[in-house]
Amino acid sequence: MASYGSVVGVARADWTAWSQRRLPGRALHLDSAAAGRPSLATLEATAAHARLEAELGAYVAQAEREDVLKQLRLDVAGLFGVAAGGVAFVESATAALDALLASWPLRAGDRVGVVPAEWGTNLEHFARHGLEPVELATDGSGRIDVDALGRTLAQRPPELVHLTHVTSHRGLVQPAAAAAAVCRAAGIPLWIDAAQALGHVPTAVGADAVYGTSRKWLAGPRGVGVLAVAEHHWDRLDVLRSALEPADLPPPAHLESREAHVAGRVGLANAVREYLTDGPAAVGARLDEVGRLTREALGGITGWALVGDDSASGAITAIRPTAGQDVAATRARLIAEDRIVTTAAEPARAPREMREPLLRVSPHVDCTPEALDRLCAALSRH
Question: Which of 68, 211, 250, 338 is spaced 20 to 30 A from 10 at the CA atom?
């Protein structure tokens, strides 16, 4: 079988240090879209705070790390392009969406504009709150049609537009900044699900609310979600103001989890600083390159076909079986026989678009020629 080393090129050497900051893998990890591999420093920061809680008590330990947590809030605010007071930390991206749905002035029957690639769990939570999803026009690739969006918002606008910035199930990056500009001009709020975007693509796009998670492309700990609300919406939030909290807290702060995984937040602080040190632009460019090279490699595997078109970007790649393979069984064999970790993506991930299961591959910046060779060889056997 042909080697794919030549398509990765010399860029691999630029990211050797990223890989060396981590524990040696016991498997080939090509699943950053599920959960990235935290660095040794992030693991140690998380564990050290857990130890500090045991030594001092949880609340005293939290107070001693207040400078770290304050810097984390500032860093996340910068990544999302909001004021620091607009940032709240919760348990997950889904918890962040629930906090928004519970506090934003929406009513049962209100309409939410979505595209067919919308994350399935989000649709379930909209339904739970009595909201009606309405599909917005897209181009042939599945990206939102920004011109059509402008016409829709001028004629019969939904009460809210919601956009999954980077889809979970295939390589699709939405033009979030352009959509935000159109929504802003029309006075319609835009929420962005940045679960797959944070640490992957630029997320300071001018949205009214944006939320994400620590554990994916930032390679932070599990159990920490982030939410950011633009300042001009703070007073719209219906929040529970506890008498036990300072009276001058900005409204988004009241959405924050108090019984929290503070050790995870401390670990996330380290992961974010590493990301900022590596350089978001450099990381994003490398992830785009990794995605292109992965698609080039997987495009030559007999029995599998790439999903999407040549305009795909980002580091997420999906392939579909063309010879009757069971995707879930293939994923299980890749782990058990080849020690390669991927994701079997079921149609429930994007029920308005997906018609069959897909195999998702999502390497991080340390992808090597040998990794792609190994994956291609294994898929050729299964």
Answer: 338
Separation in Å, CA 350 to CA 7, 145, 162, 167? 31, 18, 14, 9
pTM over 0.90: yes
> Residue 306 pairs with which residues in a beta bridge?
319
pLDDT in tens, 8-58: 343 445 788 999 999 999 999 999 999 999 999 999 999 999 999 999 999
CB-CB contact of 287 with 199 (8 Å): no
- Non-local (6+) Cβ contacts of 62 within 8 A are 53, 69, 262
Report the 10 Å Cβ neighbour count for 74. Answer: 14
307 contact partners, CB below 8 Å, separation of at least 6: 170, 171, 318, 319, 320, 358
Contact 318, 171 (CB under 8 A): yes
CB-CB contact of 15 with 366 (8 Å): yes
Which has the closest alpha carbon to 28: 265, 286, 271, 376?
376
CB neighbour list of residue 141: distance below 8 Å, 6 or more residues apart: 172, 308, 309, 311, 312
Binning the chain into helix, strand and coil, the percentages to the nearest 5 are 45, 15, 40
Strand partners, 361: 317
Residues 90-126 have pLDDT tens digits of 999 999 999 999 999 999 999 999 999 999 999 999 9
Query: Rounded distance, CA 121 to CA 163, Å?
Result: 13
Q: Say if residues 11 and 29 touch (Cβ distance below 8 Å).
A: no
Average pLDDT, the chain: 94
Give me the pLDDT at residue 264, please: 98
Q: How many Å apart are CA 214 and CA 263, to the nearest integer?
A: 12
| HEC string for 284-327 | HHHHHHHHHHHHHHHCCCCCEEECCCCCCCCCCEEEEECCCCCH
